[in-house]
Amino acid sequence: MGEQPIFTTRAHVFQIDPSTKKNWVPGSKQAVTVSYFYDSTRNSYRIISVDGSKVIINSTITPNMNFTKTSQKFGQWADSRANTVFGLGFASEQQLAKFAEKFLEVKEAAKLAREKSQEKMETSSEQSQESGRETPSGKQASSFNGTDDEKISIGPENEALKSEVEQRKCELELQALRESNARLQEVLEEERISAENWRSRVTQSQEEENQLRNQISELELQCKEVNLEKERNVQLTRRIQELESDLQDKQQELENLCKQAEIIPQLMAECENLTAKLQAAELKSQGLSEKLKLLQGEVDGSQHKHKNMKTELKKFMDVLDGKIDELHEVRQGISKLGVDN
After folding, report:
1. Residue 51, SS3?
2. CB distance 139 to 153 below 8 Å
3. Helices (H) and strands (E) in the chain, counts
4. At 72, is the secondary structure helix, strand, or coil?
5. What is the pLDDT of residue 138?
6. How far apart are the C-alpha atoms of 78 and 93, rounded to whole Å?
7. Residue 135: its pLDDT value, please?
């Protein structure tokens, strides 16, 4: 089957600066694909990332590797074979957590693969040792029936085999010590890098905190100014509304005055007509006053005449009453004369 991808994600790739061992050098300008690969023929695991035609990560996972989360979205691991430290910046905490979990799974799988390979090597070495033991015993058995030269030649071979086994053991122990030393150095380097990263991040966080505090103070001042401006705007809005209502009233009054101004010529004409009529009435009133005076004089004269006529009428009535009495007496005398006759 060959090498197949088993897990894929996207992240920003970084490598530690080889000169300073402190700063991070970006391996890609943008987020690239980072994948875990499994080689079934070699029973090994690798992390591979390619940016275009450039291979920026080619790291074989070993049991002594550790993936460290240095922040909420950033993680790193050291590769002693590549003599560098790789860093990955993810877009979210979930992506970082999934990558870290997969790293642990692959690390355990690599550990099991190494243990199985060591068991196979031990089994093969034991089988070779057993076959080696059987061969000298056969030679020894045959040498019992052989010459003295054959007996003497067997001893140096056993000594050489023992020395080779001892040398092999020493080499294995030395290799184990070297690997242990390399592991310790990697761990120390990772811890040192992590501590430096944490220090730089703490310093950066403190600076950001100070900046945020200053920004908060500025924002609080701005908020106070904004609140004052809001109050001023509210007052201005109220004043504008009052002025608008006054303006509407004034406009209504102006419209009424304009309407009244349109009526003024008619009123003036009517006023002139009334003035003329009033003058005519005054002239007529003067004439009537004169007539009234004349009539009053006539009334006074007629009253005087009436009084005279009344006096004369009373005198006439008195004379008439006397005449009537005389006629009554004459009638009575005539009636008496008629009776006598």
Report:
1. strand
2. no
3. 2, 8
4. coil
5. 40
6. 21
7. 44
